[in-house]
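wait is this the right file?? whatever heres the structure
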């Protein structure tokens, strides 16, 4: 009996249409979720700098990255073929490494290069960016990519030839 119940749950979940990928909704969620979570943690633990960073560098980075990644994935409503055929985890890993790497470079540039080469003083808030930017970028990229992939259908696979019939020539 449990096997039948398990199959019926999977069939219902597969037949249920997923909500469409709406970029503004994803960006709003990418801003609100970390702002609320990190802001609450900052208030509860008494870390005023975390509460401020929650609404600025953490949530702001998440929203910007969600917008950039979501826009790139959608590409005018026509996704790139390789983004729909690449395994979900491989695509997510590649995009996370790219976004987090770019955010790491931006965090380093802001925290170290700017104070060393301009009149901007080195402050603990600038130092926070070395951690806030890549972590926020990685989380936002992961969530947006997985959410986007769950709303699209992969192109139909080529039918395999039936046994005993010759394969079509290319």
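ok assuming it is, sequence goes like this
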């Amino acid at each position: 009996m449990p096997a039948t119940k398990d199959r019926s749950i999977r069939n219902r979940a597969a037949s249920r249409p997923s909500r469409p990928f709406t970029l503004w909704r994803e960006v709003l969620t990418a801003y609100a979720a970390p702002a609320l979570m990190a802001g609450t943690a900052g208030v509860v633990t008494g870390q005023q700098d975390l509460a401020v960073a929650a609404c600025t560098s953490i949530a702001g980075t998440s929203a910007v990255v969600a917008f950039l990644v979501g826009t790139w994935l959608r590409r005018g409503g026509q996704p790139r073929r390789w983004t729909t055929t690449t395994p979900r985890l491989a695509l997510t890993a590649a995009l996370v490494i790219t976004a987090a790497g770019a955010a790491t470079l931006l965090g380093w540039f802001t925290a170290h290069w700017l104070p060393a080469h301009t009149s901007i003083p080195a402050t603990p808030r600038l130092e926070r960016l070395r951690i806030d930017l890549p972590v926020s970028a990685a989380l936002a990229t992961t969530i947006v990519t997985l959410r986007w992939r769950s709303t699209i259908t992969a192109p139909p696979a080529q039918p395999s030839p039936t046994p005993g019939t010759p394969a079509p020539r290319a």
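The chain has a mean pLDDT of 84. so i think its the right one actually
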